[in-house]
Amino acid sequence: MGKLDGKTAIVTGAGRGIGRSIALKLAAEGAAVVVNDLDTEPAHSVVIEITEMGGTAVSCPGSVTEPEFAERFVGLATEQFGGLDIVINNAGYTWDSVVQRMTDEQWDAMLDVHLKAPFRILRAAQPVISKLAKAEAAAGRRVHRKVVNISSATGLFGNAGQLNYSSAKAGVIGMTRTLAKEWGRYNVNVNAVAFGFIETRLTEAPADGNATIEVEGREIRVGVNPALLDAMKMMIPLGRAGTPDEAAGSVVMLTYPEADYVSGQVLVTGGGLAG
Ligand code: NAD
């Protein structure tokens, strides 16, 4: 018996990093998972991993920023698995510059992927959720559904070089608190998790100082220089970065029945980091 048996979950950016761990953990607790990623191959391999461990998953490749994506994503969950219980808005990346060098393109890209895409997914999910919640209420049943939006400590405390990213991640917190108020009547718990420093390709120290990732045809510099990484670790009470597995654990626990009375909250998963 898993804690999420019979549930259907959709997870964006689940082909690698924290999203991958979230998808695996949800599946291990019995949820059927729709695995999205911009990159087709990583999304497929996560589906294979889940299937091989005896779970249920289907992939939904594509960019969350495509205007038609949200309907396709939510539609796949309902068509394949007949419902929608858990929505995890995780897909994202960073594209840093100081304010005087930040282009409109950089600004828009961060707002699009971190804020507009989750908004569209949640908007597309509303008719499905409200219909199910009304039917359950008519049958005298209360079923909790869960939304977890991924924010960042940067969205709470700020970070030099990340005006675009921190603004978007702060917006995620506003979206979370507002939707918790709108969707309480459907028994949907809406929370955010703000990660501190988690070891993924976004935060690794590149050997030659030049790590890049490719996102929608753009070559984007990521990574943190080793001296800054050491300084960041000194600011973390637990004295180290978190693993993708630890980060995912803090997201998935909010989807468990134990969290049925937790809503509108921002959980900082940062090893004690407080500003
Ligand atoms: P990651 O790069 O390891 O994984 C992110 C995944 O999202 C990738 O597989 C990528 O292909 C996918 N993705 C990116 N843009 C996409 C798009 N437009 N459509 C669909 N998929 C897309 O990064 P991660 O560290 O696991 O980041 C996951 C989330 O956690 C992000 O929202 C990130 O901003 C947030 N976060 C991470 C950290 C950290 O320290 N790693 C800290 C705070 C917040």
Protein topology:
Layout: E1 8-11, H1 17-28, E2 32-35, H2 40-52, E3 56-59, H3 69-81, E4 86-89, H4 104-138, E5 145-152, H5 153-157, H6 163-183, E6 188-195, E7 212-215, E8 218-221, H7 226-234, H8 244-252, E9 266-269
Parallel strand pairs: 1-2, 1-4, 2-3, 4-5, 5-6, 6-9
Antiparallel strand pairs: 7-8
Helix pairs in contact: 1-2, 1-8, 3-4, 4-6
The chain binds nicotinamide-adenine-dinucleotide.
The site of nicotinamide-adenine-dinucleotide (NAD) has 30 residues, from helix 1 and strand 5.
Q: How big is the Rg?
A: 18 Å
Bound molecules: nicotinamide-adenine-dinucleotide
Total beta strand runs:
9
The computed structural class is alpha/beta
Succession of helices and strands = EHEHEHEHEHHEEEHHE
Range of strand content: 15-25%
By DSSP (H or I, 4+ residues per run), the number of helices equals 8
How is the main sheet built? 7 strands, parallel
Question: What is the name of the CATH topology?
Answer: Rossmann fold
CATH architecture: 3-Layer(aba) Sandwich
CATH superfamily: NAD(P)-binding Rossmann-like Domain
Low-pLDDT parts are none
Shape: globular
Overview of this protein structure:
It is a single chain. With 275 residues, the protein is an alpha/beta fold. It is built from eight helices and nine strands. The strands form two sheets. A seven-stranded parallel beta sheet has the order 3-2-1-4-5-6-9, with helices on both faces. The chain has a two-stranded antiparallel sheet with strand order 7-8. Helix 1 runs parallel beside helix 2. The model has no long low-confidence stretch (mean pLDDT 97).
